[in-house]
Write a structure and sequence with these properties.
Elements: E1 18-23, E2 29-34, E3 38-43, E4 48-54, E5 59-64, E6 70-75, E7 80-84, E8 92-97, E9 105-110, E10 116-121, E11 126-130, E12 135-140, E13 157-162, E14 169-173, E15 178-180
Antiparallel strand pairs: 1-2, 2-3, 3-4, 5-6, 6-7, 7-8, 9-10, 10-11, 11-12, 13-14, 14-15
Length: about 180
């Protein structure tokens, strides 16, 4: 077996735990979501922090659109924020959705064409946002049949991903089942 030597990416320590990471499709950028509510956008090769986006609670999911023009974050306080980063020096928040879910956001996934953003939540549901229209398209209830978990609460829908052609959305749930949506 070959031993791989670990090395720290950042020399400075971050103030919060890193709950989620996402690479842009090109590999030029890395986005980090932290326990102290910061989404940090980094130029990967230089390790330069390009932007820091302050949130009101822990960030559990972060995702780039395929064309790297959008960055989405999902938080413990049930918020989904979509940020236009086509100009990384002057990003603009497109919307922060606050009323879609009743529990934390566990996972986010952009469709391959970038038109839709899917969000998975502890409230056992999945939402589908039309990014172009900037509105909720669908909210699917009880995607997970989860009972109280060993952690004392629901974990609900934990992860999701679109198929490469965008025709299917798969959700990984706390009830140990993968759902085809």
């Amino acid at each position: 077996t070959q031993t791989h030597q670990k090395q720290e990416y950042f020399e400075e320590k971050l103030s919060g735990h890193i709950w989620c990471l996402s690479f842009s499709r090109s590999g030029d950028y890395l986005a980090l979501g932290t326990s102290d509510g910061r989404a940090i956008l980094v130029k990967f090769d230089t390790k330069e922090k390009i932007q820091t986006f302050e949130h009101t609670d822990e960030i559990f999911s972060i995702s780039f659109s395929r064309d790297t023009t959008l960055l989405a974050t999902g938080t413990k306080d049930k918020k989904i924020t979509i940020i236009n980063i086509s100009n990384v020096q002057q990003p603009k928040i497109i919307n922060t959705f606050t009323e879609i879910h009743s529990d934390r956001i566990n996972s986010l996934s952009f469709s391959p064409n970038g038109r839709f953003l899917a969000a998975a939540s502890n409230d056992l549901s999945v939402s589908l946002i039309d990014v172009k229209q900037n509105q909720l398209l669908h909210r699917l209830e009880k995607v997970s049949n989860s009972l109280i978990s060993t952690y004392g609460g629901y974990l609900g829908v934990i992860s999701l991903t679109f198929s490469p052609d965008g025709k299917f959305l798969l959700a990984g749930c706390d009830d140990k089942v993968i759902k085809l949506i």
